[in-house]
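Issue: ligand-bound run for S-adenosyl-L-homocysteine - logging full I/O for the record.

Environment: standard queue, default settings, no custom constraints.

Inputs:
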Amino acid sequence: MSMFKLKALLDRIYESELPDLNDLEQALSLKNQVELDKLFSFADSVRKEFCGDGIILRGIIEFSNFCDKECFYCGLNKNNRKLSRYRMNQEELIKSVKYLASCNVKTVVLQSGEDQALDALWLADIISQIKSRFDLVVTLSVGERSMQDYRVWKESGADRYLLKIETSDKDLYSSMHPQMDFNQRLDCLDALGKLGYQVGTGNIIGLPGQSLKNIAKDIIFFKQGDFDMIGIGPFIPHGDSQFSGEKKGDATLTLKTIALTRILTRNAHIPATTALGSLDKDYRLDGLKCGANVLMPNFTPPPFRKLYQIYPGKRCVDESVGVCNFCMDGVAKSLGRFIDYSKAHSFKQKKEISHV
Ligand code: SAH
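Outputs:
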């Protein structure tokens, strides 16, 4: 494609309220390095204009790997009997949160498998304790739950919620999520927004059977939903999952998706995901150079960390806790940017909080 045509394509995507699917597909199929550089630097300038140079930190604690679901890509799937399961107790969890806060990180992401045995009031109590003892923002990522649970957690002080749609194509979604309902996931995202959470979603790039058109539609889904946060990571096959032996997701395609999502959504928070750092090399730096503005250092204590095996080869599983955080400064400096140690709430216009 001539540089003139490429510039026109990127301008069209940037300026349109809802871009043409073919335009997005065309941009997703760019291959030539000069063209890719153009796409990535366009996205980087949109990031700079709408999000600034701060790299935001979200510390993650993976507090339980129990899961009732059978997602074909995930190592935590309930049929994986080889994995020893753990659930951190309150004391362990609060200790990890305390450490995270001492590192000057202002957001704690509490993540687990979809564990129906997870007692909503137990988690509500943890949230209240965190909010009363530390000056922290609490993000939850514990999957699909009832409106009632989401409400209890919100009332206990939870601020944000991450629930990736994984793929916005209903048929593709059904093909890899037995016993799950695409519409229910959409309903959960909707309920979370209505309850006043800052809501994050996202997808996986390179899922078996996924086409470029599917990814283009995901990007449109992100735009239409006006999400506060969007996590985009490559598929990494896990040996003890249904998709064992499948091809892993392509790093460049993941970067292209990040770039186009940035160009379209402008000010959503987009992490350079841990999965992006866990391919043949660490592509998180590349992610930060093509639209991403968030890093998620891992604060799960080491004995548990290697058991939170959603995919193999996860970056930094063998490092001691907090080392991640330390290395973030080096990453930021190497890019001529800085670590933003503020709470860094959503850049989106504060939504009206409805009490449902
Ligand atoms: N149970 C929670 C989140 C736990 S896993 C929930 O359902 O929201 C967090 C994310 O890991 C998932 O949303 C998924 O996008 C990602 N993931 C799981 N298995 C993966 C794999 N094999 N490769 C890449 N990402 C994966």
